[in-house]
């Protein structure tokens, strides 16, 4: 019998191999000097056993295989226990960025048509007052429940205690989650993740960055911390508001890094700027990664100064719909700075195998079939497309958006695959490196040809 295709499948193995290793460490209560005490931890054994109990309790409560379930819980042990429990039960977590506009958030939840809602008390109050997720009939409160019905996470876990190992026999194409985009390029869309996408993402991250079990990670974007247990890492959840990385207190970040010997750090360009401006060295960090937008060259240079000489600073390129697509290390990125400031765009590096990245002629209309595209050679700017193990195939309840972003490609063996249109424009240089030139929708057509934001803006920024 084949093992289920599920990101949670690795958790029982790690619980046997390294039961006492801390999997998740959370800020907890205030400690000495106003810094977080980090007194809330889950080791791999506890994460596995407790998520088993919660998975069994959720299934008994009607939140099992295929049930779309909104999760609105603060970063902490409950978030990780719930997410792994939902994966184990075969339910489909629905995650929406809590920082987006309220009307957009309601639209996202309406589109997802959730059947269950798990959240802290404040989230349930907002659900009632703002009319969120009216389709949800199964309710679970994390913490104290007041008058809105349903049950609590504590009761769910108690009901499932002692149930033993829980892992649904999920198949690669089964829906694993619905993750809404940030909305930075329009109204957020629900990206349909299948179990093979998550499993493929773990492998790509391991291979692209050389991640090995036993490291200590400081992931400043909580959903990314879900990959840490699958990789055998310890996650130290930082004492900050993840929706406002630019407002993080660098002293709190440095306190966590120093106290727990953090070896790798993940953060947005805004957070990297905070650390760069603070200017304090990061002696234990051997790998820093920044994604979400191009990292300004001066920030790259400063972070590299703060890291040990042997450390690496990676900036992966990708999107919610497929990640990672390409990666570049800070040294090479600095080497391309002059070309960027001369209008070449931002170099995002080499394609992560086994992704297939191709540049096609810019077309604002849907392209149903790959046979209808015109592929461009190296040196020419066009739309970036990706096919690979993490390339998702649809948006939930958004057929028009799906048609605009996905192309079906027939393969030589009689099969087919989905090619994702990134909505970004770029080009390949003669070294096989990918250059990002901006969003397709933000280009400006002129008599002399199109202008692309990431080629034009760096030129003006150097004046």
UniProtKB/TrEMBL annotation:
SUPFAM superfamilies (UniProt xref): Acetyl-CoA synthetase-like
Highest taxon in the source lineage: Bacteria
InterPro entries in the cross-refs: AMP-binding_CS, AMP-dep_synth/lig_dom, ANL_N_sf, ATP-dep_AMP-bd_enzyme, OlefBLtnSyn
Gene3D superfamilies xref list: N-terminal domain of ligase-like
Record domain AMP-dependent synthetase/ligase: where: 15-396
NCBIfam families: OlefBLtnSynXan, PRK09274.1
Protein name (record): AMP-binding protein
Organism field: Stenotrophomonas nitritireducens
């Amino acid at each position: 019998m084949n093992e289920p295709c599920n990101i949670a499948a690795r958790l029982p193995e790690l619980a046997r191999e390294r039961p006492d290793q801390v999997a998740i460490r959370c800020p907890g209560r205030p400690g000495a000097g106003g810094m977080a005490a980090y007194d809330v931890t889950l080791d791999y054994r506890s994460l596995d056993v407790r998520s088993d109990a919660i998975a069994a309790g959720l299934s008994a409560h009607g939140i099992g295989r295929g049930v779309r379930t909104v999760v609105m819980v603060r970063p902490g042990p409950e978030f990780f226990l719930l997410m792994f429990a939902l994966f184990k039960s075969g339910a489909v977590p629905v995650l929406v960025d809590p920082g987006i506009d309220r009307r957009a958030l309601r639209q996202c939840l309406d589109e997802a048509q959730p059947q269950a809602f798990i959240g802290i008390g404040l989230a349930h109050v907002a659900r009632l007052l703002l009319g969120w997720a009216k389709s949800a009939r199964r309710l679970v409160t994390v913490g104290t429940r007041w008058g809105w019905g349903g049950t609590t996470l504590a009761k769910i876990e108690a009901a499932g205690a002692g149930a033993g190992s829980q892992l649904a026999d999920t198949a690669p194409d089964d829906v694993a989650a619905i993750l809404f985009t940030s909305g930075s390029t329009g109204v957020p869309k629900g990206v349909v993740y299948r179990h093979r996408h998550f499993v493929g993402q773990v492998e790509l991250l391991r291979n692209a960055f050389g991640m090995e079990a036993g490291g200590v990670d400081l992931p400043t974007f909580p959903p990314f911390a879900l990959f840490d247990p699958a990789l055998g890492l310890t996650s130290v959840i930082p004492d900050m508001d993840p929706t406002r990385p630019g407002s993080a207190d660098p002293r709190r970040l440095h306190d966590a890094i120093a106290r727990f010997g953090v070896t790798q750090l993940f953060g947005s360009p805004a957070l990297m700027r905070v650390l760069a401006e603070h200017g304090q060295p990061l002696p234990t960090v051997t790998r820093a990664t920044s994604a979400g937008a191009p990292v300004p060259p001066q920030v790259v240079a400063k972070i590299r100064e703060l890291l040990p000489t042997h450390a690496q600073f990676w900036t992966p390129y990708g999107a919610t719909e497929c990640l990672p697509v390409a990666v570049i290390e800070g040294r090479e990125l600095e080497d391309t700075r002059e070309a960027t400031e001369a209008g070449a765009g931002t170099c995002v590096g080499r394609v992560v195998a086994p992704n297939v990245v191709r540049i096609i002629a810019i077309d604002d209309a849907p392209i149903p079939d790959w046979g209808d595209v015109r592929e461009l050679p190296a040196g020419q700017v066009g739309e970036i497309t990706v096919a690979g193990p993490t390339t998702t195939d649809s948006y939930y309840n958004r057929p028009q958006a799906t048609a605009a972003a996905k192309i079906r490609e027939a393969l030589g063996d009689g099969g087919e695959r989905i090619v994702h249109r990134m909505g970004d424009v770029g080009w390949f240089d003669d070294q096989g490196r990918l250059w990002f030139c901006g969003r397709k929708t933000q280009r400006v057509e002129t008599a002399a040809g199109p202008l692309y934001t990431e080629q034009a803006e760096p030129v003006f920024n150097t004046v």
